[in-house]
Amino acid sequence: MAGRGKLIAVVGDEDTVTGFLLGGVGELNKHRKANFLVDIGIILINQCIAELIRHAVEAHTRSLPAVLEIPSKEHPYDAAKDSVLRRARGMFTADDLR
């Protein structure tokens, strides 16, 4: 994988994972081997599942892999619960955003 891009991992409900599979996340390589756990750069996780492991999500502070919370079909996104967004908001003042 040297010199190649990082992959995206998806942790979510059946509808979310199926959508990403149809979009090409989790495909097989030319040797018919799964690429599911290779060189992950971004982890997309349904926010409702992130709530179940909130302690682990909040403990992850490294930049790679980036952990991004996404909504699911049954559970809308709640920005107040997103630990990454809360940390990002703490980095800037109102003057920085003008």
Folded structure, characterized:
The chain is an alpha/beta fold and 98 residues long. The chain is 31% helix and 17% strand. It has four helices and three strands; from the N terminus they run E-H-E-H-H-E-H. The protein has a three-stranded parallel sheet with strand order 1-2-3. Helix 1 (14-22) links the parallel strand 1 and strand 2 (40-46). The longest helix is centred in the first third of the chain and has 9 residues, at 14-22. The model has no long low-confidence stretch (mean pLDDT 77).
> How big a fraction of the residues is strand?
15-25%
Radius of gyration from the alpha-carbon trace, in angstroms: 16 Å
* Low-confidence parts: none
Average pLDDT score? 77
Which strand order spans the largest sheet, edge to edge or round the barrel?
1-2-3
